[in-house]
Batch of 2 targets.
Target 1
Amino acid sequence: MKIKYKITIGILSILIILGIVMNLSIASILKRDMESNVMNSLEEIMKSTRESIKYRLTIDTEIDKKKLLLQEAEYLSNYIVLNYESNIEIIGLNGEVYVSNIESKVDNIENIYLRAVDGEVVVNLKYTDDGLKGFITYLIFINRESLGVLHLEKSFDDIYKQYSSTITFIGLIVIIVFLFILTLSYLVASKITYPISLLINGIKEVGRGNYNTVISYSGNDEMSIVAREFNNMNNKIQLQIDTIKSEKEKVETLEKSRKQFFDNVTHEIKTPLTAIMGYAEIIKDNIISDEEFKKKSIERIYEESERLNLLVLDLIKISKGISTVDENKVEIAIDEVINQICDDMQIKASKYGIKIKRDITQGKIYGRINKIRELFINIVDNAIKHSSSSNIIYINTKLEESYYCIDIINYGEKIPDNIYNSIFEPFVKDNIYKDDESRGLGLYLCSEIIKDHNGKITISNGKEIIVNIKIPCLRNNLETIV
C-alpha cells in the first residue's frame, strides 16, 4: 500500500473515532438538558394544577372533600386539558378511577399509584417513534387530608423535534469538517509522497528500458538531491546504451545486407538462366532454321550472360563488405520491354503447351531498366507455372490517368489461402506447381521493385488469376516525380 494511503487511512481512523465520541457526547448532553427541561415543566404544571384543584375544592366547605373531588373530577379534567394541553386521570384513595382521558399508560402504574399515595411525586418520561411524552403522578390533599391521586400526561414532541434537528445539524457539521480534514490530509500526504512517487515511476521506466526518463523535481531538500543524482545516472546509462545500440545496428545492418543479397541473387540468377537455357536449347537442337532468329537468340544469350556477370561481380563485392550501388533510373519504353519479355518467355511457355497473347499500348516510364525486366519476367514466369496445360496467358496494357497499367491473366488452380494471404512476403511458396525450386522470393522482389518505382501491385485470386500492376508513366516528355 502506498504511503499516502497509509497516512490518509490513519487520519481517517482517528477522525472516525473522534467523530463518534463527539457525537455521542453532544447527544448525551443535549438529551440530558432536554429531559431536565421537561421535568421542570412537569413540576411547574404540578404546582399550578395543585393550586387550581385546591381552590375548586375549598369553595364549598360543607361537603366532604373526598365526595367533592368525585363530583368535581370531570370539571377539573376539562379545565386542566384546556389550560395545560395535557391529559389526566384522577383516582380515589380506594383505587376508583373518577375520570380519565389518558391515551397511553406508563409501566408499573400500580406501583406508581402506591408511591404517590405515600406522598411521593413520581415523574416518568417515555420516548415514542417520533416524540416524547412526560408523566407526573402526585397526591391531591387539602389541609393534610389525602383526597386522591392525579396522574397527568403531556406531549413534548416539539421539544423532541428541536432536539433531533439539533443532533442532525451537529452531525452534518461534523461530517463536513470530517470530509474537509480528510481531503486536506490526503492532499498533504500526496504532497509529501509526490517526490517518492516520481522516483518510483522513474525507476520503473528505467526497468522497462526507457533511459530518457527525467525526474522533474525542484527544491533544496534531500529528495531534490536524489532526483538530480538519478537523472545524472540515467544519462550515463543512456549514453552507454546508445553506444552499444549503434554498434549493434552496424553489425546487424551489415549482416542483413549480406543475407538479403544472397537470398535475392539466388533468385535473380535463375531469371536470366531461363532465357539463356531456352535460346540455347533451340540452337543446340537446331529446332529453328531461321538465321535471323538464331542471331537474335545469340544476342539474347549474350545480354542475359552480361546480367549474370553483373550479379557475380556484386556477389564478389558483398563478400568483401562493399555495398552495391543502385542502378540509375532512366526513361524506359515500357511497351518494348514487355514485348521483348513476351517473346523470351514464349519459349518456356511452349514447353507446357501455353500461348502468350498480348495487347500492348505504347508508353514510357522512368525507372531502372534491369529491375523492370526482372519484375515482368518474374510475373510471367509465375503465370506459366500456375497455368493449366494447353492454356492461354493474356497480357494487356493501357494508360489510365497518370499510370501505365498492366494486367497479366492466367487460368489454373486457385492459390491456397495460406499462400495468398502473405503472397508478397519473402520465402512464401507452394511446391505443387511445375517449378518447385524457387526460394519464394519472386513476388517479394516484385513488390519491392514496384515500391521503388512508386507503383502498385495487386493479385486477384481464383480460377482466373489477375496480376494488376500500375507504374507512374511519362506524358508530354515530363518525368514522373520519384
Target 2
Amino acid sequence: MIKVLNARFLTSSPSLEKSEFYSGSEIAFLGRSNVGKSSFINSLVNQKNLAKSSSTPGKTKLINFFEANFKDDDENLYNLILVDLPGFGYAKVAKSTHKIWQSALDEFIKKRNSIRLFIHLRDSRQFDMEIDKNVDLYIKSFLRSDQKLINFYTKSDKLNQSQKAKVLNFDKDAKFISTLKNEGIDEARELIIKGVFGRV
C-alpha cells in the first residue's frame, strides 16, 4: 500500500512562462468545473484543505502546484508535483477571458515537459459528455511515449451497480472514486505511482 508522508502547497501561476520548474515528476489534473478535482487531490494526500475549491465554478484560473511525498511497503520513496489545472467547460466565464485562459492552458499542457501523467476526472453521473470525450482526444493527440492518461470517475457513491455497469460498458477501464466515502483512493494512489514510476 502507498502511504502519504507529507504534502504542501508550492505556488500558483497563470501561465507556462510564469511557472516554476521543479525536480519531481508532475501529474496534471484536468476536469470540468465542480467535478471534484480539489477534493480528489486532498484525499490523495490525506489533507482536508490543501487544495481549495472555488465556490464559484469557473472562477479559478490559476495553475496550482503542490508537492507530495509517498512511500510503499518496501520503503521506496516517491516525490510528486501535483498540478491542479483550472476547471473547463463552465458557460458563465466571459468569452474573452475564456479564450485567453484556454490559450494559456493549451501552451502549458503541451509544452510542460515534466508532466508524466494526466489525470482526467469525469463525473460518473454524466460519464459520456461530449466535452470530456473531446478532452481525451485532445490529450491523446500530443501524448508522448513517456506520458500516460488515466480517467477517474468521481462521485461514484451516487451510483448503483446498474449505473456503474453502464459506465464500464462505456469505458471498460473506468476507475471509480468517491472522496465522500473515501472509496477507490488507495487504489488511485497505487495507479498514479505505477503510472509515473512504473512500479508499486
